[in-house]
Amino acid sequence: MRRVGVIGHGAIGSVVASEVAAGRVRGCELGGVLTRSHLAPMAVTSIDELLERSDVIVEAAGHGAVADHGPRVLDAGLDLLVVSVGALVDEGLRTKLADRQAGGGRLLLSAGAIGGLGLLRAASLLGAIHAVHLTTTKSPAALVASWMTPSLLAELKHGTQPVPVFEGSAREAVQRFPASVNVAATLALATLGFDSTRVTIVADRTAPCVRHVIEVEAEAGRYAFHIENTPSSNPRTSAITPYNVLRALCDQSDAVVVGL
Looking at 9, 63, 69, 212, which residue is catalytic? Predict the structure, then answer.
């Protein structure tokens, strides 16, 4: 049995922890949860204690947690399954984590709320990928940000039509919406990188789901993925996201991108 440690007990971490603790993840048992929440099963208060009780660590606490705890996890020789993939937009952090893999732990990235990444990675091995475009549609409440102009904020609050709130590179998308577009980072790392992957983000109060449309042109072919996910209790997150983590734990790996 692999002991799974979880960092965070929010919309993603709480589901991962409860499902593992209940014995519903083949070959895994819960080692502990690093959190301030008194509701978490097997809660611990320090990363040292979590490392002692775990064989693999799931990060589900945001970009800061990747920077604060990622190097320690890999130095301990444990695999680190990252949910907050957008943290890797920081080149220095990405390099630091990649170098730490020499200690035996692997840096693994969760596919989160999207799919098709295995096919796209295969396409990149066959030949050049020419263009990648992600269009993400979420509720306005999931996209409100402090940098927005008063007119845009008013449109998000009162408007009834879809509102494009961003168009640019995956790098800028992750920097502007760090809690909402980790999928952009994962797609970028699996294909053209942060600066060449294009992202459009749309706010739509009438959308009953979180929608991701991925369009790719490559030497291997043309690909389009249309994904509509039920939101979780946190409107910034799809309900499927923690279950993609659980699927990865069942499969013993989630090698979307390994050895960055």
Answer: 212
* pLDDT score recorded for residue 65: 97
Q: Which two tokens stand for residue 177?
A: 């919406």
158 catalytic residue (yes or no): no
Q: Count structural domains, the chain.
A: 2
In a domain, residue 38? The reply is yes
Give domain status of residue 256, yes or no.
no
Q: At what angle do helices 241-251 and 13-21 cross, to 10 degrees?
A: 40
Residue 252: what pLDDT? 64
Reply yes or no on whether the pLDDT at 253 is more than 60.
Answer: no
Angle at 188 between CA 184 and CA 191, to 5 degrees: 140
If asked whether residues 87 and 140 sit together in one domain, one would say no
Closest CA relative to residue 197, chosen from 131, 135, 136: 131
Same domain, 121 and 225: yes
Does the global pTM surpass 0.85?
yes
Q: Is 93 found in the same domain as 13?
A: yes
| Interatomic CA distance for residues 251 and 205, integer angstroms | 36
Q: In this predicted structure, what is the pLDDT of residue 212?
A: 97
Query: pLDDT category, 256, cuts 50, 70, 90?
Result: very low
Domain, as residue range, for 16: 2-112+240-251
Percentage of residues of the chain with pLDDT beyond 90: 85
Quick one: tokens of 44?
A: 């611990």
